[in-house]
Amino acid sequence: MTAANELTSAHRNDLRTVAAMIIPASDGYKVPGADDPAIQADMLATLGRDTAMVRQALDHLARLAGQPLADLDAARRDAVAREFRASGGEAAAVLVRVVLQCYYRDDRVLRSLGLELRAPFPKGYTLEQGDWSLLDPVKARPSTLRRA
Amino acid sequence: MKHDPVDVLIIGAGASGAAVAWSLAETKMHILCLDQGGWMNPSEYPSTGRDWEAKFYGDWSTSPNIRGRPEDYPINDDNSPIKVVNFNGIGGSTVMYTAHWPRLHPSDFKVKTLDGVADDWPIDYDALTPFFEENDRMMGVSGLSGDPRSPLTHPPMPPQPLGLSGPLIGNAMNKLGWHWWPSDTTVATMDYEGRARCINLGHCTPACAQGAKASTDITYWPHAIRAGVEVKTHCRVREILTNEDGMASGVVYYDKDGVEQFQPAEVVIIACNGVGTPRLLLNSVSGRFPNGLANSSGLVGKNLMFHPYAQIYGFVKEPTDSNRAPPTCLWSKEFYDTDRSRGFVRGYGIQFGRGAGPVFEAVASEQKGILPWGADHHRVFRKLNGHRLAVSAICEDLPEEHNRVTLDPVLKDGHGIPAPKIDYTISENSRKMMEHGLARGREILEAAGATDICINNPIPWGGWHLLGTARMGADPARSVVNEWGRSHDVKNLFIVDGSVFVTSGGVNPTSTIQAIALYVADQMKQRLANLFD
């Protein structure tokens, strides 16, 4: 028996399969797929308020697939995924967002993107001044503020 | 439980409540402010964690309906294409805003005279000028004086750097020969009045851990409290009561333990903005005021104005500032004034966006269908991420009575108080304005070399600006408060927030809201001897 706010083993299997369909591993970019165990563990550990919607999305996915998603042949799996995204509404959007938000904070992924592995605070970032002479033509124009 | 009476009771500790409290403090009256939220803790702000972007979709969502903190109240906005966004707590929505700081233009106060639509305000820009200036000093504004298409300002700090995104936009605007200018913002670009300068944490909207962005919990409130103003947190006001003379006698509220309290007051000031204020007035029903307090005109809750945002964005080859800078840096007033050849009256300001962080980019681009699933995901994401430029037309919303805030017959907050219900449609004039803004935005993006162009028309969760629902005017039959913020019906009841706006202009309103709050406070101080006449 699984509580309404938890994922079953079948849910987790389908989540892993669909996550890999969204973002597969890439040797070229030297990044894991979204089915990577550490990224999957992050998703499950931080589902929180999204759990019910993700569960709803996975139930919808299971209905479309009729069997574990991983057991379908590639063509059928792709067709189910397209139908899932098209007909899954807000729940499907939440599932995809959960996958993306956990994937794009993984150290290996951020490193591949050339991003620093840290929170913005307290170090922040440096912002260059840019070319202020671009504003000269605007400064040269007369005031056109509409009079009241 | 009944408390000793106070001279002035302010409801709401956000943008306007803080300003009016600080200004009135010099009178040495006993001033108490009640707020349904508490003090913020910057160490908990999203930018302090690696999961900073994920928080925007939950505990730090701009939508109170998603956020669902105990201090939030639900809002039924199902019947509106634009959803209400706000923040509740000490500082109110100044804790969670972009810090973009334009003012209404002088012409915005005379739209009936100039363009034959809506109504003129009963006050003009000149009446507010000293209060704009005072407010800019108190909030700490950065910017560049001398914009030829905006009112003259004197920001005490230099503008934000152009960064990587600013020159891309500036070059595009120069190609088109259109106006642009560095935005005034309430982001401190140098150490200012105890605030540390901006270190570009990015995404100012969900609160600034550095304290560089002005929010009234760190600007007005410390001064007001030192001057003797008292603030009580986690106190949600249910209704304003009146006495046999038809004067406000005080408020009923629920304290932090949920216990009902009565706080008597000589003067009540409402500062709950354009949804919270009409909600409170409509909940304050009595035999003498059966349709809600201060509502003899029937206009409480009506004429809601949002500013529909038409947003268009694209992706350039050059890197943009992404999440490594405050989100807004430049504005344009090229299309601000009426030109009837465009097919609509009034106009819009343009607010440029520097970019987005990786999670936001991935989520938004996947939803728009430009970021695929599968093997090509990685290549496309690297083309999009860190390359976004955005153009948003902030369209002047004209007042229409059918756009309104009422009380939901079913929905209630955590204290059982009826929640607000929004009924709103985007007018034909606004639709035409939005289409115009999108077409011009496309030209700007194309001039910048952007591709993969997407639109949000309107930005659905873009209901930041909550205006017009207790409008100001000289005629009690056509307005809720008079030209100095006092209720026509209840002579010791004042409103100082965005609900008193007569028209909305085409700019972010917080600067003007606070200038009005300071102006009303000044009017009260000048009339203390005969305030209720």
How would you portray this structure in words?
- The complex is a heterodimer of chains A (148) and B (533).
- Chain A contains seven helices and no strands.
- With 148 residues, chain A is mainly alpha-helical.
- The longest helix of chain A has 15 residues, at 51-65.
- Chain B has a domain at 6-151 and 184-306 and 399-423 and 461-528: FAD/NAD(P)-binding domain (3-Layer(bba) Sandwich).
- Chain B is 23% helix and 18% strand.
- Chain B has helices spanning 15-24, 64-67, 111-115, 125-139, 165-176, 220-226, 273-283, 358-368, 377-384, 428-447, 510-526, and strands at 6-11, 31-34, 76-79, 181-182, 230-232, 236-242, 248-254, 260-270, 309-315, 328-332, 348-353, 388-395, 404-412, 418-423, 451-456, 493-495.
- In chain B, strands 1, 2, 5, 6, 7, 8 and 16 form a seven-stranded mixed sheet that branches. Chain B has a six-stranded antiparallel sheet with strand order 4-10-11-12-9-15, with helices on one face. Chain B has a three-stranded mixed sheet with strand order 3-14-13.
- The longest helix of chain B has 20 residues, at 428-447.
- The model of chain B has no long low-confidence stretch (mean pLDDT 97).
- The interface between A and B is large, with 55 and 66 residues.
